[in-house]
Amino acid sequence: MKPAILAACLLVMMLIAAPAGAFSAETLEISLNEDGSADITFEYALSWLERIGVFFRIAEPDQELKSALEGATGVPVTVTAAESDRAVFSAQKFAKVNSDEGAVIYSTPEIDLTGAQKILEGYWFAPLIRADFSPDLTVVRFPDGHEERFADQSTIPALSHTVI
After folding, report:
1. Are 100 and 163 in contact (CB under 8 A)?
2. Is 4 within a domain?
3. Which of 32, 84, 129, 154 has the smallest C-beta neighbourhood within 10 Å, fewest atoms?
4. Tell me: the pLDDT tens digits for 70-108?
5. Domain count within the chain
6. Which domain of life is it from (predicted)?
7. Measured in whole angstroms, how far is the alpha carbon of residue 74 from the centre of its chain?
């Protein structure tokens, strides 16, 4: 057998025997601005298989996360930066802002990231990937510096915080 054919066969066997790839959400940071807009940073880890998919533009995690965030929050989201392990977004009118007797009340929507799983299931390569859309840590930061933290949750509850 020719060396090139043997090498190709070995490569195919390794790919077949390799464990499924894994997308793992690491951190989700949501920083609210005084006007209710938000800067959102999502850090994640991709398996070697997913990195190949991103390299060949088969999958674009930033666009998938954008769609998931829009579905979860009900507001338009813009991708402002994208890297192989991180995506940054901007969302106008993310939080509702109300004034009451000198205080400002910020109310954020519930964020359900399980919608990202549904988006992923629509791709041909979905059976090859195990995905965890529950960030290890989620931080929601209000304009006065107050933070709400959540660990390993795919659904972040609606929040309300008053700034006096």
Report:
1. no
2. no
3. 84
4. 887 888 999 999 887 888 999 999 999 999 888 999 999
5. 1
6. Archaea
7. 15
